Amino acid sequence: MLRQQRTRAARVLLEQQAAGGALTPASCRGARGDEAVAMGLRRPGSVICRAPARQPPRFGTADERAVRGPLASVRVMTSSPPLPQRYLLGFMVLGLLAGTSNGVAKVVLPLYAAYLHASPWQIGLVGGLQFTGMLLLSMPVGGLLDRHGSRPLYRFGGLAGAALYLLGFTRMDRPWQLIAGVVLFGLLNPFRMVATQTEFLHLLPRLGPRKAGWQRASHSLGMFFVGPMLGAQLLGLVGYTGVFVVTGLGLLATVFVGDRVLSGAPPGRGRSATPLVERLRGQVGIILSRRELRQSMLIELCGQMAMSYFAVFVVLIGIREFHLSVPQAASLVTLQGAVFVLTLLLAGGVLSPLRDAARYAIAFSLLLATEILLAFPLGVASLWIGAVLLGLGLGVQHLTSVNRFAALTAELGRGRVGGLFSLSGPAGSLIGAVAGGSLGQRFGLLSGFRVLAVLYAVLMVWHGRGVMTESDQPVALAEGEPE
């Protein structure tokens, strides 16, 4: 019986050789040369089984490099050549345009609500509901990516958003209409944002760790600088209706740019893709089973909480506690945003030799110092120094998190991880603004920074004990992508 099995194995080996197929140790197992000689399938002394030829490297120019940090056991094999710079430029232009449209909306829509004589709570809804769609739909849209692909979803989100601005906001003259329009636009936003963020994570191994923060930097530049300034200037020149028309045309422009940038994105799997409900269950299962993914989401959520609370309340603190003028207090947010963007653009190369554990140690130390400084300010200088440290710490943290999510994307699939990555930020922003506001109303505005200081102190302790830097299991990154 054993001899028959070995004889069949020898036949399989010869068939594989004749077909030009690679012989693996598994295929050689059980075949002995004497059976092949007896069958006349080989000459005495010849070799049937050879070690498989060395496979060309995958994903880049280096033969093999380790993904550091919580994925320390990950070995990324690289074969695809580095992407041309035009791909990175395309993602940056796309991020800048998307951030600019969101920045215009962030400034103009609450002002339009006040123009329509909305009550304060209605104005708060207009300002707070713009990005809740990312919180609600990031995971479902991530599931739809595998079925339909990124380009169709991006087209739908961009065209529908442009139509809403051109045909909807221009005709709204009641506060409740504006609130409904903001909710609808928030539900359309994930189709654009999740698609671009997911494809950027998918291509990041070929772009390199130095450029991990460039797409986020371009989006932040548009959202916090170009968008607000452009919105204020347009409002004085063309009024609210004109601003809505220009924004709608800008969204149409992002559709054409995005269609070009995403032209190389993998197509959807169609009906062969996993059903959406099952996909959502799978995403929840991944969160529950993969500790390194939960850690990455938690770290990103905490960072967005810190950024959101600072952006919303530091202006009020500067005015009420330190008697700054409105422009001076607002410049604290501008300074923090500028340092954050510069860190994303410039620090990737500096941090690339360090392991994730060292990067997170730097980020958590900066953020803990920031929150302590802001929680117990000694003077107005504490606010300015805190703004700089917060921008640095959040930039280092985000660069590290992006690389971790990119490694998880390569292993677990674009749709699975892309939606989860897009979920963490809006969730943190919402918690930071809403919970922080309730806390500040009860215990004072500085209390939010004290809670954040305790939070980052806990993260530092966990980090020091290795909880934040160890993975549950080795991660094997295959060249193909799992569904």
Category from helices, strands and their pairing = mainly alpha
Q: Regions with pLDDT < 50 over 5+ consecutive residues?
A: 12-79, 469-483
In this structure, how is the largest beta sheet organized? 2 strands, antiparallel
Number of strands: 2
Strand content bin: under 5%
Rg of Cα set: 27 Å
How are helices and strands ordered from N to C?
HHHEEHHHHHHHHHHHHH
N-to-C terminal Cα separation, in Å?
40 Å
How much helix, percentage-wise, in residues? over 70%
Number of helices: 16
Q: How does the overall form come out from the CA principal axes?
A: globular
Strands of the largest sheet, in order across it? 1-2
Mean pLDDT: 75
Description:
The structure is a single chain. This protein has helices spanning 2-18, 25-28, 33-39, 85-115, 120-128, 132-148, 150-168, 175-207, 214-261, 276-289, 291-322, 326-351, 356-375, 380-412, 414-443, 447-464, and strands spanning 64-66, 75-77. By secondary structure, the chain is mostly helical. The chain has a two-stranded antiparallel sheet with strand order 1-2. The protein is globular and about 60 Å long. The two termini are 40 Å apart.
